[in-house]
Structures are given as structure tokens and as C-alpha cells.
Amino acid sequence: MPISHAAARVCAVLCVTLAAFSASAEQQGQPRASTKAPTTIEQGPLAQACGVRGKALGSPVEKGPGKWKLYDTQPGSTAPRDFYLTGFSDGCPRRITAAVAMFGSVALYEAVHYGPVGLKPKGDATDAAYAQLRARTCGSSKSACSEREIRRLERSAAFLSVYPSKGSPSRLELLMTRGRLAAVAQK
């Protein structure tokens, strides 16, 4: 089966990110992250971790919109480590290795990209997926969503920013909606 150009780009971003995580971990004396591609249903850097439950998830550090929850295996650390994300429709948590991971705000994304300042989205995978979700909720011709529509978007979509190391200027941005990973982009 031929691989699409978009899928090839996602795979390339994933390989570069995993290499950065591994190199960063080695420099800080941490265990090396696996260089094997994560086993996923979705495209992206989230590895299924169906057998991980309870205390093995780590400490809950942040609740995103809807059912999304982020767990940290070493809260307070700035070294790359495993985070777990729950809220997927199949009930399996997903593991991601990072130094920092945190939810972003749909309202802030709206204000920055569609508000009066209007820094139009760059057109990467998460921007495109969010634009489709936004068009279904707010209508494709609207330059601004109403407060009610923003609240609706906030209940159905979640952004997760994942940084390979403390102070890293680059990150992976993940967009989740309806219990699945909708898109991943290198920012």
C-alpha cells in the first residue's frame, strides 16, 4: 500500500523527534528512549499502553477538556520521561516520552489565529485538522466564533504540546478530538 506524502512527513517528524529525545536523555545520563517506532493505531508519537493502569500511570498532573487526563511518571523533573495520556475511545492510555507536556487552550488558539490580531494558521497538520473542526462548529465563512461555539470547541478538542527538553524552542503539537488523535505537527 503506498504511503501518502502527509504520512511520510509525520513519520519523518516522529523519527527526528525520537532521536532528539534519545540524544537529550543520553546527555543528561537518563535511560535512552527506544528508537523503535511506537506501536499506534493513530499516526503520531503516542504509543498504546493498554496494560498500564493505576499507579503505573504516574501522578495526574493536568486535566484537559472532556475526558483527557495527563499523567507524569516523575513530576517535577525536567528530564525526558514517560507521560501517559488517557481519554481515548478504546480505553487504552497512550505513552509519550518528553521533558515537558501540557495542554493548550482552544480559546487561546482561537484568539491568536482567528482573533483581531489574526496570525493565520501556518497550514500544518494540526492547523488543518482544527480548521475542519472549527468549520463544522462555527461555519466555514466565520472569521470569529461566538462564545457558545468556543465553549463547544473546548469540550470537543484538546491540544497537547510536547517538548523534547526543558527550554526547547520546538515542540510537537497534538490535536485530539472525539477520543482519538486527529493530527500531529512539529512547531
Main beta sheet: strand number and arrangement? Answer: 5 strands, antiparallel
| Low-pLDDT residue spans | 1-43
Oligomer: single chain
Mean pLDDT: 77
Total strand count, please?
9
Can you tell me the overall shape? globular
Return the string of H and E elements.
Answer: HEEEEEEHHHEEE
Residue share in helices?
Answer: 25-40%
Strand share of the residues?
25-35%
Count helical runs. 4
Q: From the alpha carbons, calculate the radius of gyration and give it in angstroms.
A: 17 Å
Can you put this structure into words, describing what you see?
With 187 residues, the chain is an alpha+beta fold. Helices cover 30% and strands 25% of the residues. It has 4 helices and 9 strands, in the order H-E-E-E-E-E-E-H-H-H-E-E-E. The protein has a 5-stranded antiparallel β-sheet, with no helix packed on it. The chain has a 4-stranded antiparallel β-sheet with strand order 6-7-8-9. A hairpin with a 2-residue loop joins strand 8 and strand 9. The longest helix is centred in the N-terminal third of the chain and has 23 residues. The N terminus is likely disordered.
